[in-house]
Amino acid sequence: MSLSGELAKHISSVRYEDLSPCTVEMTKRTILDTLGVILAANTLGEGCSAFVKLAVQSGGRRQSTMIGYRTKVPALQAAFVNGAMAHAMDFEEGHGEALVHASAATIPAAIAVAEAAGQISGKELIAAVALGNDLTCRLGLAIEHSLLETGWYMPPILGAFGAAASAGKLLSLNEQQYLDAFSLVLCQSTCSAELANNSQSIIRSVRDAFSAKAGVMSSMLAAEGLSGFAEPFEGRMGFFHAFAGGRYNPLRLVENLGSVFEGANVSFKPWPSCGGTHAFIEAAMRIRTEYMIMPEEIAAVEVIVNPVFQMLCEPAQSKRRPATAIDAKFSLPFVTATALHYGDVGLDHFAAEALQNEQVLKLADKVGYQIDHTAARAEAIGGALKVITGRGAFCVKVDKPFGHPKQPMSEQMLMNKFRDCARYAERTISDEHIDQLIERIMNLEQVNDVSQDLMDRGVL
To answer: In whole angstroms, what is the distance from residue 314 CA to residue 225 CA?
Structure first.
């Protein structure tokens, strides 16, 4: 059986009952986390309002909810809008080795389809998201070099395949139809790495809108019988050859398939910035607290960075003066300075006025960097920070920052994060309704109809 065929057969055959208790729990936490981040992006997400406006103006059947707006639009448009918001805060979970944010595309796609279809149970939604996230992560693990080398920005490209897997599961696609859906994704999925070279652009924040929409559209077309290719992934002109130059490890794609779901091996973010900054945030907070260092006594700061995240430091001058919130979230000088100044990094620290805070910017000017070219890609999320003062130099190295599966956030912390995000929703959600939402999502396997029990009654 071909590699594509093996994946299609697996996804089409797995059911909720095949998932381990750990996978179920982690998937529910992922759904809660992503929905919260979408609510925060209602009012804080740069560029998201354009997607909302376009969806409303386009009209069509009222099928699926724009989360937080309590307005229904066609399922494709809902996936498009919610996908834009899912990554806008760069606050959703991520896979540290695969270097993807799988849920940013899979959950908007799955929820849009579940709501439009109706009579989709919580168990079915959990299985769909678990399968979609697993595929996205496995694709990232199989590619063992950076696609930036050839001009591609990997996370949203891979996310589109995961979105198709999730949406297709709820549309009951069979093995052949999944091959068709993945072929159709291949005809749509693209993202230029040029978005990382323009500090004025906010495309990086809304990128998963295109992934979620492509996944839903591809699955819907496959369900209608539109045929694709036999080998969309490994074919001579398929995904791995077109995007990765044929450099991939097929074993990583299918190893422990069905027994390990990589979506359970993710980090939940305690801070709303690129995961590559988190080791340095934690180190800065520890140095500030343990050595009682005040920002004004800092003479210089040095960060030692994995080559994967060199982009967080360059070009140095623009990283010290980020123009947009998403650029600031991808700036090690700015984020490190924020952590040293405030002792924390929160949603409000990326507001327009916060980007102009002179004290933070002065600290950012003091941040220098070194690239550790001996570090392995699998160690990308780690890093070391040195703060130099008149009292001496203080160093902290963090290999696995808080939020990593080895240093996890507690369930209560994730619930509090959801509450914090929900207060930024477009339409105010009462504390009572927030608690009800949390309870429903954390017991999603007991929900009979996602459309009724979660979306309509859940005030999303």
So the answer is: 47
